[in-house]
Here is the input.
Amino acid sequence: TVTVAGLLTGRDVIKSLQDNTDAYDALLVPDTALKEDEDIFLDNVFLKDLEEATGIRAVRTESTPQGIIDAIECLTGAGSQQ
Here is the structure.
């Protein structure tokens, strides 16, 4: 199945962040926006390409509330305190 997030392209993300990269520490990318077992968008842009183009760390995130929480904890180091 294809979800709406699955139609998001890496170039769209890069374009939307083009002049506003200083405002972000990391970009959480829902797993539904990427191929099932790869860190690649519909338009063949990899997460590493996104990072190189924007200078922002890109993190694949499970598309659930817990997935977002886990990603934030991982980025802040909060998960290692448990």
Notes: DSSP finds three helices and two strands in the chain. Residues 65-76 form the longest helix (12 residues). The mean pLDDT is 87. The radius of gyration is 13 Å.
